[in-house]
Amino acid sequence: MSKWVSSSIVIWFSVFIIQGCTTVESTTHTALDEAIVVLPKTAFIPTSPEQFPIETLYSLLVAEIAASRQQFDITLNNYIDQANVTNDSHIIARTARIAQFFNSRQTSLEMGLRWLQHQPNNREAITLVANAYIELKQPLIALDYTEKLFLLMPPTDYKSAAALVETIANFSKRVGKQTVERLIKRFEVLDNTYPDLTSIKIGLSILHQSQNHLKQAREWADLALKQEPNHTTAVIQDVLLLQQTQQSRLATIKLKAQLEKDPGNHRLRLTYARLLTQTDINQAYEQFTQLSQQVPNHLDIKFSRALVATELKKTTIAIPLFEELLTVNYRSNTTRFYLGYLAELTQQATTALDYYLAVKAGKKRLPAQNRAGKILIQKNELVNASKLFTQLRTDFPNQKEQIYINEADALTNKRLFDSALKLLNQAIEEFPDNISLRRHRAIIYEKQNKLILMENDLRHVLTIDPNNVSVLNDLGYVLATRTQRYEEALKLINQALTLRPEDAAIIDSMGWVVFKLGRITEAISYLQKAFSIFPDPEIAAHLGEALWIKGKKQQAREILKNTLQNNPNSPQIIETIQRLGISL
């Protein structure tokens, strides 16, 4: 009975591995998955279980059951243990496959190399080792194994090895310049040896593109398209080059035309969907939805669709997608971050906090923990928030100043001005010339009507950076609105406007200070320009007041009324209407 159960589960899990590898591919299409499944994957089935101790059979059975329950760490660890205990080539091969599927690159490489010790010319083992070296950013070694693969293959199978060449190129975009130059030379030798393999030409185009050799990249891409006009990766590379040379519209047109010829090609559609995210997010969502129907088990597509749904605030679609991805531990830290963000959008602060605090590593850890700290402050858990932000400053010393600012902003939003000031005082003592810290403290001083202290901080910034446009405008605007030092304000704002003449906020400041100086017609001209660039309620309030004082009351009413309709809670519009006694 043990033998039958073990064999059945092994077969099931082997099918699971093969299906996963054939359907899940890199979102940038590196041909990695195609290369992985070129050769058959033979499951380990112990036809003679007597050759293994009962402990080994039991451990492997537990591993397979764990996989069915998505306890993948148990699966992999048990197989690693038994590969080490038995040194059996079949168990080692299966461990290598499992490690590759779970993206355990170092383990995949170690087991693949041990597999080759048993079977030096096993093409699947060579392919697996080459892929491991690719993902471990050792492309030259990966190419050694790929060249060996060519020598072991009949010509009819060359395309599968060529797919590895393409993959090496894609994964080599961020390696050193010298490595890329060596790869280019070796790729050119391969192209001379195997001139009919389009993937090698595509690889050369990708490598040249990575070094910004756009002319050579275009030449190799054209050669690839001439050889195979409908080669999917060649078409995609052509589109990416067009996009890089500011020909995005042509890239979109060409890709759409190719999709009409081959509507079932999900790689083309994925590239098209990504192009659309830059120009038409709603159309991009439709493409990702169609993709998810074409390849429902494609995790990268599912993730992309969830991201676009998040951007469009489609929470009822995004949340289940991310939850499903989390169950298979797909990009778990990033997925938890977005689930936290979506929980915030749906007013579930506690759930959001749990997700954010669970982000323990990766690029999303800092933003997740920052958001967690802000939620703790919103919930009045100030001690826990302080501990969290303090730990972040220890863990991310290069971003210490920004973490101070994030914590101060959260305290300020909660109107805990004294706590925010205490924190910023501590930060400025540590970083006395940090402009952002000084500006943030100045904002709080202004809210507390401590204008002398506010001005001191902003003047300090200007001694460090005399042409800091934001500070020039900030100080000028406060002097124009909170004091009668209008000429001084005018000088500061004029300097800012000279440095950034099309900035709506600065144009508004200029309009307001000349209004305060009694130059109403000139003020209206500035304020109308600012409003045309950025129809903000504060600018509308300034423009409405200037028009009203000038006697253009109907125009003033229209601007104030229209802005209030679009922003019914705008304090600037409401205050202006009430102060001037305007009836709309």
From TrEMBL:
The TPR repeat boundaries are 504-537
Question: Keyword annotations for this protein?
Answer: Repeat, TPR repeat
Matches recorded under Gene3D superfamilies: Tetratricopeptide repeat domain
Source domain of life is Bacteria
Q: Which organism is it from?
A: Candidatus Endobugula sertula (Bugula neritina bacterial symbiont)
State the PANTHER family in the record: LIPOPOLYSACCHARIDE ASSEMBLY PROTEIN B (PTHR45586:SF1), TPR REPEAT-CONTAINING PROTEIN PA4667 (PTHR45586)
Q: What is this protein called?
A: Tetratricopeptide repeat-like domain-containing protein
Pfam families the record matches? TPR_16 (PF13432), TPR_8 (PF13181)
